[in-house]
Amino acid sequence: MISLNDLRRDIPAGLVVALVALPLCLGIAQACGVSPFIGLLTGAIGGIIVTSLSPSRFAVSGPAAGLVTIVVLAIEDLGSFSAFLFAVTLSGVLQLLFGLARLGRFIALVPGSVIKGMLAAIGLLLIFQQIPLALGMADGHRWGAISLPTLGVTASGLVILYLWNSRFVRQRQWLSWVPGPLVVVLAGILLSLLIGDKSGNIARVTLPALTSLTSLLGELTHPDWQAWRNPAVYAVALTLALVASMETLLSQEALNKLRPQFPLPAADKELRAQGVGNMLSGLMGGLPITSVIVRGSVNVSAGARSKASVLFHGLLLLFSALWFSKLLNVIPLASLAAILLHTGYKLATPRLFISQIRSGMFQFAPFIITVIGIVSLGMLSGIGLGIATQLIFSLYQSHRNALMLTHYDDHYVLRFQQSLSFLHAPALKKLLQGIPENSVVIIDSDSARFIDQDIRAVLDNFSENADRRGIQLMQWPVNTSPKT
User: Fold this and answer.
1) Is position 484 within any domain?
2) How would DSSP label each residue in 362-427?
3) Residue 446 within any structural domain of the chain
4) pTM (2 d.p.)
5) pLDDT tens digits along 428-476
């Protein structure tokens, strides 16, 4: 039950979250090439439906910047937004099945380097996609058609976001409580009113006027059920389901570090909630939904106590779409582009690349291969390449450290650090050959639960020639039979 005492903290927190989510929902929809109304609709579904089913008290779900590039490419590949909606609905079904099959625990198997690479690649793709809009290019591609007024709005937005993350603002609580994206939007409106009419047109948000239930229903797009015949739909649905599930569970994990919850929200129940949300979003004409760490962290820092804050934020987004369309239509698209450029930069900050380089080749290689793979080949292919690279490096490291030979004077200790397969036979031969005559050799095989027949053959051959070389064997013969 939600108490009145909780509501006194939840309602202001929900207002703050809505003020942060509003420009992000509009910007993400614009970046996806769909009506801003769809962004608000998706935010409302995530804030109301998913929150009602989610086990988390503080997580905020809605359209995510990390899925923008997937959405854009998917709509292009499938040929229509309605066909894409079928893929979104199907991705929700897959997420629901993931939750029912209790697959949430497998998120822990994704290497951290690959996850960081995925986020960095998403940031880079977001930046590349928003640059034309930020420069005010008429068709989004011609580099010669830059609009100086639009560029001015974008630049002012980026400067504000930079200052809002500075120590100056953080040390002044009355400023830090005002969301930076909201300040960017307000400044963009004022600047566009001052210079837009004099220097040229500045593109703005175009929300439809919804005066009745009929007009609202008329704005909803429904899935193209004939798209089931297109094989590409299933690849898109699987990509959306996997990436959205991964982003959701990682966001939940990060959010729990900010505000621990006991018991910990069940990953499988969260996947089921996200699956229902995406099914409904696809059916109603919305974008894919994930749990978003940025909005969740704002909710926590704003002092939320229960789900009421997130539910209130969802209702505010819905009311904004219904009753404040005229007010929202004065927002410059360049201000939204600035917000998304800043989001992309935070995901792909140079500091992340430097830290991965400093962590060594075994961490940097999977990271950069994931980045390159996603940017050049797509999300699933890039993640697959990153996981494969990490697996190869991990196997190499494991193989390299499986055997250890140490010595003091003429006493040599050969340790088996793990179970040994035929792949370790060449390394074992090399180590044994390096042991000089008239030595004492001790075998420590306690850590090896299994020793392959080829390894036994190498050990047997060494023991047969030990007397001839004057080598004394201790803890020998080794128990090389498989252990149960």
Assistant:
1) no
2) HHHHHHHHHHHHHHHH-HHHHHHHHHHHHHHHHHHHHHHTSEEEEEETTEEEEEE-S-B-GGGHHH
3) yes
4) 0.72
5) 888 888 889 889 998 888 888 788 888 888 888 888 888 888 988 887 6
